[in-house]
TrEMBL record:
<dbReference type="GO" id="GO:0006631">
    <property type="term" value="P:fatty acid metabolic process"/>
</dbReference>
<dbReference type="Pfam" id="PF13193">
    <property type="entry name" value="AMP-binding_C"/>
</dbReference>
<protein>
    <submittedName>
        <fullName>2-succinylbenzoate--CoA ligase</fullName>
    </submittedName>
</protein>
<feature type="domain" description="AMP-dependent synthetase/ligase">
    <location>
        <begin position="226"/>
        <end position="426"/>
    </location>
</feature>
<feature type="domain" description="AMP-dependent synthetase/ligase">
    <location>
        <begin position="26"/>
        <end position="179"/>
    </location>
</feature>
<dbReference type="GO" id="GO:0031956">
    <property type="term" value="F:medium-chain fatty acid-CoA ligase activity"/>
</dbReference>
<dbReference type="InterPro" id="IPR045851">
    <property type="entry name" value="AMP-bd_C_sf"/>
</dbReference>
<keyword id="KW-0436">Ligase</keyword>
<dbReference type="InterPro" id="IPR042099">
    <property type="entry name" value="ANL_N_sf"/>
</dbReference>
<dbReference type="InterPro" id="IPR025110">
    <property type="entry name" value="AMP-bd_C"/>
</dbReference>
<dbReference type="InterPro" id="IPR000873">
    <property type="entry name" value="AMP-dep_synth/lig_dom"/>
</dbReference>
<dbReference type="Pfam" id="PF00501">
    <property type="entry name" value="AMP-binding"/>
</dbReference>
<feature type="domain" description="AMP-binding enzyme C-terminal">
    <location>
        <begin position="476"/>
        <end position="566"/>
    </location>
</feature>
């Protein structure tokens, strides 16, 4: 029985059916759907899922381009769990993720053809059904392969919205750029809710009690700072709703917005903005995946008013816009939310020229909280990057920040408290945050707060690399490279890059009798290594392409160590940066 006292992702359907009934709310190519049509599509899918046999707590894995907004809502409507997968993953990564969450239903399209064609039924014993969003690619020799049209039910009963909650919680299993992992799967009653915040690792979700209050609805974020292996973090339902409201208040999303989905729905940034736009009843312009030419065309064609970006996306957009004699998008775009790394001076300057009417907003996030939104204006861009770090602005109204300072009292670990933070780690029974949020949560980032109240980021306490909006764990890349017979030791670091934010660089120590040369090809003789054949080695060992190092440095001296014998990754990074003009010399 639905309980309308508590949050539910499908509560947005009432607004879409009421205020947006006759207005377009989704645009995909030449296809437009009004609010009423979207609601009917969601309900038709939901009824089909129920008829198929989907029950509260069942997991639905989705690996597709940006075309499954209705699926997220439909799965939630019936009390299922949605697990969006990154379509850029290798087969091995996708298989591990599927094995971990044990889905009963897999929804795919052509984006996943490189790996789902390899998937055997015995790889995922829990899998009962497979739905292909592309009928042309149907393979009826595998499982119970269906199409959306085969499961939809008509006519649909539009109101009242009798949606369901899972027995013990309302959740989404959200993957971003996680590492190879060994995981346990929870199977208690679960249900979809869009997660807010940059959750870098696998999210597991499980209610911690059977209470019915808003804070009893929690999800578990699986993450680890040092190994890339998951660790659980629980967040309340209330935190998710507060974050959505904060986005509406700070970014200024409203029903008049035309929002371009530049980020994939498998990423938390894409999911969170999608949910916020659903709540206000704006129009979604969906591209299968980001392409700068297509995005620029869509901005002009549909008079896009808002989108989210990372430095790599912004750089690509600017490169397409710059040579245009006539650029109409600058007149319509009013809001740009940037995450995944700070924009360079050049990109900020260019964005103020080509999107001269837009408010540029920065999001600083931490995986143990919902998205901690910060804001700054383009007009103050000279303050955004200084030698002391990167300014990400002032916190949202519901966010408290402070610095656990060093002896100088100015620089230290960034702490936060408020309704946006986690309730507890999943593996502990004690709540690290008291009911009145008196305990401060350590974000793991280093920074300072200036006398204007602006937060300045100076670095991370871990070695996580942010490249092109993706999170990369150096330990995962190192584990692959260490398997190569010619490598005895390796340290992977992120090097500042204007386009990618950080570029993956691998510092390698060669085994005796092995030689390094940038001139070698992949077919050269044994005992020789080069950038090309190491990159090929990474591909052959199923490392996703965005994680493969773009730089390799032959490191001739011992790696710097701490007093406890751990690699000083920060020192390696500094030495590499000091040698950027001679990367292939002997360090």
């Amino acid at each position: 029985m639905a309980n309308y006292c508590h949050p539910h992702i499908c509560q947005c359907l009432s607004r879409l059916l009421g205020f947006g009934r006759h207005f377009p709310v989704t645009v995909t190519g030449n296809r437009r759907k009004t609010g009423q049509q979207l609601v009917e599509e969601v309900l038709s899918l939901a009824q089909g899922l129920l008829h198929l046999g989907l029950s509260p707590g069942h997991v639905v894995a989705i690996s597709a381009y940006n075309r499954y907004l209705e699926w997220l809502l439909a799965v939630a409507f019936v009390g299922g769990i949605a697990a969006p997968l990154n379509y850029r993953w290798s087969f091995e990564e996708a298989r591990l993720a599927l094995a971990a969450v044990k889905p009963v239903l897999l929804v795919t399209d052509e984006s996943s053809s490189t790996w789902y064609s390899k998937l055997q039924q015995n790889d995922i014993p829990s899998l009962k059904w497979h739905i292909l969003l592309d009928s042309a690619s149907l393979d009826f020799t595998k499982w119970n392969v269906l199409t959306p049209e085969m499961i939809k039910r008509h006519p649909v009963k539009v109101e009242p919205f009798d949606y369901s909650w899972a027995p013990e919680g309302t959740v989404i299993i959200c993957f971003t750029s996680g590492s190879r992992f060994s995981l346990r799967c929870f199977s208690s009653g679960l249900q979809l809710i869009v997660v807010w915040g940059l959750v870098e690792k696998l999210i597991y979700l499980q209610s911690l009690n059977t209470g019915t209050g808003a804070d009893s609805l929690r999800y578990k974020v699986k993450k680890s700072r040092t190994t890339g292996k998951p660790k659980g973090v629980t967040l309340s339902h209330g935190a998710l709703i507060i974050q959505s409201l904060a986005k509406i208040a700070i970014v200024g999303y409203n029903e008049n917005d035309v929002y371009l989905h530049t980020a994939p729905l498998c990423h938390i940034g894409g999911l969170s903005s999608a949910m916020t736009m659903l709540m206000v009843g704006g129009c979604h312009v969906l591209m299968p995946k980001f392409d700068a030419e297509s995005a620029v065309g869509a901005i002009e064609q549909y008079a896009v008013t808002s989108f989210i970006t990372v430095p790599a996306i912004m750089a690509s957009l600017i490169s397409v816009i710059r040579p245009k004699e006539i650029w109409k998008g600058g007149e319509t775009v009013k809001k740009i939310l940037n995450g995944g790394g700070s924009l360079s001076h050049e990109l900020i300057k260019d964005s103020s020229i080509f999107f001269h009417k837009a408010k540029l907003i920065s999001a600083y996030v931490d995986e143990k909280t919902t998205m901690s939104l910060q804001t700054f204006g383009v007009a103050g861009s000279k303050f955004i990057q200084q030698p002391q770090g990167v300014c990400v602005g002032k916190p949202a109204p519901h966010v408290e920040l402070k610095i656990s300072a060093d002896a100088s009292g100015l620089i230290g670990r960034i702490l936060t408290r408020g309704p946006h933070i986690m309730l507890r780690y999943w593996e502990t029974h004690t709540n690290p945050v008291s009911p009145n949020n008196e305990v401060w949560l350590d974000t793991g980032d280093i920074g300072s707060i200036d006398h204007y109240g602006n937060l300045w980021l100076l670095g991370r306490t871990n070695g996580r690399i942010k490249s092109g909006g993706e999170n990369i764990y150096p330990e995962e890349v190192e584990a692959i490279l260490l398997q190569h017979p010619g490598i005895t030791n390796v340290v992977v670091v992120g090097i500042p890059d204007a386009h990618l934010t950080e570029m993956v660089a691998a510092c390698i120590q060669l085994r005796e009798n092995w030689q390094w040369s940038e001139q070698l090809t992949v077919s050269d003789e044994e005992f020789n290594l080069s950038r090309k054949n190491l990159q090929l080695y990474c591909i052959e060992n199923h490392l996703s392409r965005f994680k493969i190092p773009k730089m390799f440095i032959s490191w001739k001296k011992p790696f710097p160590l701490t007093t406890t014998g751990k690699i000083r990754r920060d020192q390696v990074r500094k030495e590499v940066m000091s040698q950027l003009r001679s990367l292939h010399s002997n360090l």
